[in-house]
Amino acid sequence: MVKLSNISPILVFYTFYQFSPHICLGKELLPVFYTLFHNLDLCNIQVLRDDRQISNIDWFNINRPTKILTEIKKSKSIFTNDFNPQPINVFKSRSFSPCKLAIILANQYLFIPRNPHRVLLDKYINTVLNGYMFYNDNHNRKELLGQDFVTLFVTAQSHQNKSSHVDFTLIEYSQIGILVLLDDGKFELCAWTNINWDKYAIFLQKDLSCREETIQHSANNIVDIYKTIPASLPPWCYNNLMQMQLVDVAYNNVTQSESNFGDSVTNYVLQLVFQAANETVLFQLNCAPAHSLLLFVRDGMEPHLSKLFPIKKNLVTLVITKNSGYEFLSCYRKEYITFKLYITPFKTWVWVSVVSSLTLIIGITTAYKYYGRLRSISFSPWMFILATLFEETGPIPVRIERNNFFRLVLGSWCLVSVVLTNCYNGIMISELNSPLPTYSPSNFDDLICDKMAPTDIPKLLNSIQYFTGRHENSSHPINPKENIFKSGYVRIAWYLKELVFFRSEGNNMPINALYQRTQELENQFTSNQCFSLLSLPNREVSGITSKLPELLDDLLSFVFNSGLIVTLTTAKTRFINLLDPRQIHFPRISDYRNSNQLIGQLAHEVEGELVECGKSAFIAKSDVLQSEFDFLKRHYPSRKFYKGKDIMGLVTSSWRFYYQGRSKVPMHVKALIETGVYPQVEKEETYNKNFRRKPVKKFKPDQPAPPIGLDGAVTTLFALCGVTVLAVCFTFIVEVRAMIYVLMKSMITRLHTFLRKNILYFKAA
């Protein structure tokens, strides 16, 4: 038995019957339920019938739990739905099943008033599609909508011509067919196909592809057989221009052109997919209502489909390609030494034991000396014990040395102190030789220079209104030392106003005549104590880049998004704090006023500033940042780059397929993603941008220390030694000056006596 779960995750199966109410009871019953339930797995089944008795079908073949409703009311208008479908509560259904089967039995009420020869299926399809199952969430009723569904119009062979009067609007019903019940247990299943997809109203009997089967000899159910009947599929409509319009509407209240769509990865994937599926894709500005719509939603930029295309959002197949957000990398480090270095060699309880032992030994020896008739001896136990801790010795009187108590206590302590001091010195030397502990930012909160309190958000909006209401020239210099700019929300408000006008000029947006245009962006609040948050423009048209970096552009769009205060969260407050003008968002040597500056020039400036390992961080989307991180690690081995640990503004990129019907395109795209082909192609495209890229700076590798010579810093050691010797000699002379005086006087006296004797001797001779 073939299960419907193998065909589709959720398969909604609709059948519509048209029988004559004048068939007599004595004639043969039509095997309607026998045919529909043949080889059908367990389903949630619901039968909606009108109040006319239909007695010529096999009701007894309903051999599974089924909900039968008889509350279909006659519709007064073709544009309204007056009947209540009584949907099933999914939490009260009999069993879980991936299959949902809805059967509508109708006679004269299937016909439209004033036109008894025409049947419109849309109303019945929408009834089952939007009102078949529901569930309650927080006391709110939510409809469980269907997506992949098959619509069958079931009739007898004698009434097959009635299907020529059945039509429907061709918007979302691409899986429609006719089930004709034949004699001898046979049936004919016809799949509707179309030749001209630009038509809006389609008659059911045209363009049918049929297959005849016998119920008993068939190993498949009705849906399996329908899936195997060849039929033309509606073409897919895919257009870059329409996608850019969708992104504009959804992403920003301030109009801006978005042209980073339709890159080589997207085109390459489309080529592979549509060749494998053997289907057609149209690149048109306007898509017909019958076309299947293909969208690529990049970085969570949700399109407003209702404004551009009549789409029911439940009829979409979502294939997620990746999750990405903003990350940062840097090589900034700040080394430091704290008092903790001196206490790390021993754990807490070791220090407690050492201090307790010292206190006990000093107390016992002092008390013994005082009460042991050794009071007259000049000896301080605590000085001796302290000297041993610093690997020094002190004189011990003879009577203390001969005392057995002091021998035992101080002797054992000397052994312990030798072990303690050597362990401590060894660990300290290892700590001093190891790299110093460093501080480096690990998340975006560490990059924020001044955090603004959530209570300042209303003040921020008032400040924005204040600055945008000023009619003076925006390029007029301001004084950043004014008291008004001491608050962070005031600085951010001023910066936002400047950025809005600065970006508006680059996009040729009309600005109210009351405001003077900003001729140049001069940020006078920049501080070297804050991080530089560097990023590159996110688009490039004919080599000319946008005026604002990607991060700054996205932050600006986020702030002016609606509902900022109502839905304020910690993450949103972090976004606002990153807009503090004290933090630099542009390369320091970059001239963003030059609209002809290429993105390659900006990338070189950002790289040159980043490899200096100052207070700067490069911020980009996850895939771009990983590529940049690998490039910097490979070409700058002497710099230790690291990435932040958190991701800011995590969003999802996905393919969206509307009205896929029987198309295999979503299946092929999903296969490319799950097998890793699509992520690998995206990764290679990102890395290929750095294929011929060369590093901006070249740093010399670390050289070994040169041998020491007398022409180097070692002469300082000899100079210090000489100065020390001279100072000692001078101190010695001062201290023994009296003895030197006596010695000198004695030597002079002896010399005088010697000379006098010799002189007298020579005179006598």
UniProtKB/TrEMBL annotation:
In which compartments does the protein localize? Cell membrane
Q: Which GO terms describe its cellular component?
A: plasma membrane
Task: Tell me the protein's name.
Answer: Uncharacterized protein
Organism lineage string: Eukaryota, Metazoa, Ecdysozoa, Arthropoda, Hexapoda
Q: Which UniProt keywords apply?
A: Cell membrane, Glycoprotein, Membrane, Receptor, Transmembrane, Transmembrane helix
> Which stretches are transmembrane?
349-371, 405-427, 717-743
Q: Does the keyword Cell membrane apply?
A: yes
Recorded hits in InterPro entries, A to Z, give:
Insect_Ionotropic_Sensory_Rcpt
Query: Topologically, how does it sit relative to the membrane?
Result: Multi-pass membrane protein
Question: Where does the UniProt entry say this protein principally localizes?
Answer: membrane
